[in-house]
Structures are given as C-alpha cells and as structure tokens.
Amino acid sequence: MLRFTxxxxxxxxxxxxxxxxxxxxxxxxxLPAVQKVRDAAARMSCQNNLKQLGxxxxxxxxxxxxxxxxxxxxxxxxTVLGFDDDNPNPxxxxxxxxxxxDVNNSPGYDRHSIYAYLLPYIERNDLASRYDFTYQWNQKxxxxxxxxxxxxxxxxxxxxxxxxxRTLATGGVQxxxxxxxxxxxxxxNIATAGIVASRGFYAGYFKNIYPTPQKATRLTDxxxxxxxxxxxxxxxxxxxxxxxxxxxxTTNLLDESNPDETPSGDYLGAGFVTGSPWSQPRIQTKLTGxxxxxxxxxxxxxxxxxxxxxxxxxxxxxxxxxFGDGSVRFLTKSISSETAVSLATRAAGDIPGSDY
Length: 356
Description:
Keywords: Membrane, Transmembrane, Transmembrane helix. The protein has 356 residues and is an alpha+beta fold. It is built from 6 helices and 14 strands.
C-alpha cells in the first residue's frame, strides 16, 4: 500500500532561529548607517541655518552701513571688561542713556538681542512688524511679551536635544530658545591667565551697543579679514548646561560673558546656561576657553567642551560657525587656543593657524 505524504508547511524551529539571527544582523548593520545619514542631514541643516544667519547679517549691513549689534544694552551695563569698544562713557543711569539718544518707554532699562534686529532678514516680518525696540524685550504685559514665545526655525539646530521645544520662563513670560549665538570676541582674561599670548585687542565680529544711536561693527573695522573672523557660533542645547557631551544638572557656573555681570557676579543656576532665548541680549557670547581639568573657564578647550558661553554643537568631532564673509565652516575639537582666539577677534593683527 502506497502512502502519500503532504508537503511540509512552515519552518522548523532551527530555520526560524536562523532567519531571526539574519534579520538581527541586518538591523545591526543598517542602524548605524541610518544614524549616520540622520546625523549628516542634521549637520547639513544646521550649516544651512548658519548660512542664512550669516547672509542676514550681511544684508543688514548693506541696508544700514554696519552690522547688527550683538545686543543692545542700557544704562545698567557697559563698564565691565571693556565690552564697549567705542563709547568711552557708557551711560550708568536712565537719564544719561536718554541724554545720549536712547529711546526708552520701559519703566527701567531696555535691552534687545541681535535676532530682534535680524527678524526682517530671516523672513519673520510677522514678528518684526510688531516688535517694539522702545520697550524691554521681555517686559511683562509689554508689546514684545507675546512675540518672544514664537519659535524661529532658522535659529534651531535639529541635532540639539529637544530642538524646537525648549522654552525658558523669564520675567514672567515664556521665551523660545536658540542654538546659535553672535560672537563678540574673547574675554581678555584668557591672556592674563597665560592661555594665549597677549594681543591688546580682543573684540570680535559683532559688537555690543549701549545707547540706541551707537553704531555697531563696520566691515572696515574687521582688519583681520572677514574670511578670518568668526561671526555666529553654535552654542546649542540652552538653557540646559552641557559639559563634554553630557548634561550637568548639578554644576553652577558664573556668567563670564555679559557686560551686566562682573566675574564674581551672578551664578547661572545649577544645570542652566544664560542667554538661551533668541530674544535675550545675553545670547551674545564672548569666548573664554574651557578648562577640562577643573571644569571651569579659562583653558585650552574651545569646541564641544561646554555650551556655557562657548562653541558647542551636537555633532561628532566639532561644531559649525559662520565667518564674516558669510561662509560656514566646521571647527574641530582639536583647534588650538591661539587659532581659536585669532579667529574670534576682528582686528588683533594676527594670522590664524590651519589646525581647525
């Protein structure tokens, strides 16, 4: 008697395990490639954002004859560390500021960030048409309060954690954050600390102004050359403090970069960085270098060491910056202190190295 056997259906356990193992291997091979593509896309998008900012600053210069100010301060600032290049007598009272031409409808001082000036040049006329420079940037119930909560994608790096969702409560209002900052040069104390050779000039591409009529940097002021001078930098992840790629929620740092603070002044608060909203004047940055051994300012690390007023991006090996000619370059973490300082100053008369 003949017996007929039906064809086997399905897989044996061993065959299933082999298939699963093959799929796992393929996934393991593909995931890093997918991540690399994502990282490359984020880095390219970040570079494009910085390109737009660099061109916006140059378009502002074409229209006004000088670059946008890194920040407009008031009578409460201007006497610390030589932040003011041109005004030998910055105002110290509201009356003095108004006498020097300041227009101020706020009850106290009024300040503004570079991005308030650049709004028409980055296609945000919806904000520019309503922003009022005669009022403090974050005055509660003031005309600017509802505007500063608006996201501006041009100032957000997609590689930054929480990009597009970070806000900061300031003065009783919510403000959207930014991942890029205007560079105003180098803190002179870096030479005093013996990190670099003394130059005698430490101001950068962008300049802080004090009374409203004061003019910011003219291109003729950049005698080191626009192609050798950094404009905007990545300083990403704010308001959260990052050190060497990791959040630092328990670390307190002094504010070394802003003219309304002395070196022994304000702590930023554990785990936080000053100047995170796009609308906040304190977003301007004067570099100091980072000391990785002591986890403090004034050292030989200039890229991706901390986002506390330094160059910092969430890209492997370095961070993006714009130069004064509108170009965007990737600075590597291995950049030397002398080269970093040369690139961050506009008229020190030095020639930057090629180690970046």
